[in-house]
Amino acid sequence: MRASYLLRRLLYSGLAFGVSITITFVILHLIPGDFITQYLKAFYVIAPPEVVTAYNHAYGLDRPLIDQYFSYLLGVFQGDWGYSLSYDRPVLDVIDEKLIWTLVILLPATVLSSIAGIAIGAYSGWRRGSKADIALLNGMIFLRAIPSYWLALMILLIFAFYLKLFPLGGYVSLSALNTGIDPLNVLTHAALPILTLFLFSVTGTYYLMRNSILMTAGEDYITTARAKGLNNQQILRRHALRNALLPMMTMVALQCAGMIGGSIFIETIFSWPGLGLLTYESLKVRDLPLLQGILLIDTLIIIVANICVDLIYPYIDPRVEVGDDLQP
């Protein structure tokens, strides 16, 4: 990989991040309502105009929007992402605290869904047209059509409310106030959110793996392997599966990044204290600095995931030469 390509890639990524900052800032400031009005409702039935004016001046919300934008843009690149109005703390501190809890359910769900999706998709694609393939394909289509919030509600209702196998929500039991946080207790609370994220994301991995296997099965080297007398299992493991796995690198990386932003409903329903629930709470009280920080973190994770895939891909597939100029 050439250094010039890596430099260009980083430059384009920085440009994309800057555009994301602008779009996020504009869209969030178009949302009706403001935090100051919501916050003062806790003290006043109708807040006096002079009080509202004083709070807006204290937080710099009375400045022209273009001034607020350039101040925010400069602060982001200096590591100052603003101050959360509802938490009364720096935005990055709040996000760091919540991101850890999102990763607690996100990483296991991503690993499990990737393994299951790859295995089931490879089996289904290799046995295209069989009863097993048709059953799996229809099952995945049905599962994909279910909204994530409805799926989370049904899982919560069945396994927590009716069967009482798992807690109804939260990340620890009340006993943690006396005994401290027990990892096993956290795992018990995390089981249902992980299951929901797993079911929500396994379908995408399945579809891509199945299609990748279908494309690989028609290659000449598969025909050559059959002519050599290798059985179906040997051909699948040694040839088809290895080459079909290459597109999965991008899928898994982007899926992991995308699930952070897509866990709003799931974390809210299960009262899981991650970025998803934080997004919902910030939106409810119009905490714009915190909302901007959350959306920028999502964007940054997606950009970093893309760069990592670009860096790793040539080592997985030596045929890929990234950054080389085309020769006549």
Characterization of this structure:
With about 325 residues, the protein is mainly α. It has helices at about 5-30, 35-40, 50-60, 65-75, 90-125, 130-145, 150-160, 175-180, 185-215, 220-225, 230-245, 245-260, 265-270, 275-285, 290-315, and strands at about 85, 90. It has a two-stranded antiparallel sheet. Strand 1 and strand 2 form a beta hairpin. Helix 5 packs across helix 15 (about 290-315) and helix 10 (about 220-225) packs antiparallel against helix 11. The radius of gyration is 24 Å and the shape is globular. Belongs to the binding-protein-dependent transport system permease family.
In short:
This protein has helices spanning 3-29, 35-40, 49-58, 65-77, 91-126, 131-145, 148-162, 176-179, 183-217, 220-227, 232-244, 246-261, 264-269, 275-285, 288-316, and strands at 83-84, 89-90. The chain is mainly α.
Task: Give the key terms.
single chain; 328 residues; mainly alpha; MetI-like fold; two-stranded antiparallel sheet; 15 helices; globular; cell membrane
CATH superfamily placement of one domain: MetI-like
From the 3D structure, determine the CATH topology of one domain.
Answer: MetI-like fold
For the report, how would you describe the main beta sheet?
Answer: 2 strands, antiparallel
Shape field: globular
- What would you report as the Rg, rounded to the nearest angstrom? 24 Å
Low-confidence stretches: none
The N- and C-terminal alpha carbons lie at a distance of 20 Å
- What class, by secondary structure content? mainly alpha
